[in-house]
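Hi! If you just cloned this repository, the fastest way to understand the data is to look at a raw example. We've pasted two of them here, unedited. The first protein comes first, obviously.
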Amino acid sequence: MWRYLAGMLAWVPAELEAQLQRDAGLTHFGYWVLAALSEAPRRSRRMSELAAMVHGSQSRLSHVVGKLERQGWVRRERTAEDGRGSVAVLTDAGYAKIAASAPGHVATVRSLIFEALTPEQVDQLEDISRALLERISDGPSHLP
């Protein structure tokens, strides 16, 4: 079981990374950042909150947001509340990018995961994944 799980944990992300790079010019991490912002109120999140949501360090997130800024897909602003923190904001161009990239990503996920499983297996995989993530993160998982 462990070898199958470890293989899946290595293989699936590599396949998703390859598809996104090839079809959308995005890394999987960059896609997660855009997706998390697209689902946020006013398409913006504090950088610290965003880092936690996409399971990345603040330095990694800052680097990726810098790349996304240069593409015109994200901009950084000071927080309105205290002016000390930074907020990442998805631009209209960024929203268009995630909307255009999502169908290919979703098709790849469906092909790799959902088409290989019965509906009952999908439910079981969800329960198992949630239990493992809650154990690892010491609480309910926060996935975009």
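Ok, and the second one:
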Amino acid sequence: MPSTDTSDPKIGAGSRIMRRILSMYIGQSGRVWKHLSPSVRNWPVTRTWGHHLDRLVRLSADRKQYFATFFLRNRAELQLLQRLADQKPQGARFDMTVLACSKGAEVYSMLWAIRTARPDLQLNVHAIDISQEIVDFAHRGVYSLSGSDAMASENEEAAKQKGDVSWNTSRDQNASMFERVSAEEINAMFETKGNQATIKPWLRQDVTWMCGDAGDPGLLAAIGPQDVVVANRFLCHMEPPDAQTCLRNIGRLVKTGGYLFVTGIDLDVRTKIAQEQAWSPITDLAREIHEGDTSILAGWPLEYWGLEPFDDRRPDSQIRYASVFRVGEASDSTELAGSGRSGR
């Protein structure tokens, strides 16, 4: 059997024949996996097979970026963000950057979480994406409340003809951006009129929307050191060597003692760079955040962007499954002081 170390750039390219063989094997194995019950999938031997399939999927995948996103996507992640904001003194400045901001849903969700917990803070937020078109759409903060079924590939042109709001809201979505938001939360975050929802003005303040590349070494000079950098759900779409290089650059954006959120990434890549850079994993809510986005968990092990189940039997579990790190800390892991004070 060939090596399945996806961090090896020589393996990443592969050959057409090998990719075809892998595709056939993965397809047949996937049909078997989908028929296994959750309890059987959790057996040690079955989980070992799952890891084997996951490595092969990542080895043979054609990775590309997507714009799919959700409002209030990971509530445990938002709760931890509130706890970090709660550490700030009254009226303090809070610098935060969201990389690969996509359609803006997660930016506005984070602003909602912080502003409802700490309205006194002076927020200074940068929202950055590599696509100017999607940055402009996110900046407007106007979304369609209709479903995403119009975005089936055969209906793409019809969806485009419905207008910019409908098209951009639905693009790359296989479920509504609003599926994780209650009616009460929609009323709190949006002004609705007909089939459209517009972000309320108090959530649009203090955000600088930028077109930029997370891997650009000049990004630090453009935005300055940050208290919190969010680099979620885009590094998995890069080949592992590129993701490693990009993640090192992202780490430089964080102030000493600041925090880096990084989910949606190959766990081998994240673990390697976190250890290399001596980042301290945040243990507070680590499991809840890891398991907080069901759509990503459901993809494992048959999608390269799928997230393996939390396994506290692993000796490296604290760092492997941490989604948030403190930069510039000497300790091996960190639990937030007073972490029980805030959060919903």
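That's it. A detail worth noticing about the second one: Confidence is low (pLDDT under 50) at residues 1-13, 148-154, 338-344.
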